[in-house]
# Entry
Amino acid sequence: MAAPDQRIRPVEGGLEPPRLDIPAVNQIFDLCRAMSLWPMTFGLACCAIEMMAVGMARFDISRFGAEVFRPSPRQSDLMIVAGTVAKKMAPAVVRLYEQMPAPKFVMALGNCAISGGPFSFKGQYGIVEGVDKLVPVDVYVPGCPPRPEGLLEGLFQIQRKMTGKRFWPVPEMPPVEGEQA
# Structure
């Protein structure tokens, strides 16, 4: 058995990724992270159907840098909570969030994840009224269920949060002199 002073200890200051003091390099890292988000499959209710639709050919989330939904939190950097979070499920949500490597982001997809759901769910003893009571949420996508375009817009907001600018949709370029619009 190893001596106590040779054991692995947690790094002081948390689990944030290392940052260099060179702004241009940090911008490149942020851009690469934003264009290769790995969302975690975490559908809890009917909003998960819309989350699945965004991965299909019509909406094709891979065009925007979020190619494959990962089954493991250790391979993910975006948790999309889609649906009603029951109090019995709350410890699992927190545990999965804690297992994600930094930098990590959370999207609350649908009214159930944002506020507990429709009025029939409000005040129920077994429902968490908003996933933000459990983990920090970066983007809220309202709807019951939200359309796939709403989820894509949430993805764009996450990318904007990472890089400071929006990439999609591509801004319209003004016509060049002499060309027809």
Confidence is low (pLDDT under 50) at residues 1-11. Residues 23-163 form a domain with the Rossmann fold fold (CATH 3.40.50.12280). Residues 86 and 127 are 4 Å apart (CA to CA).
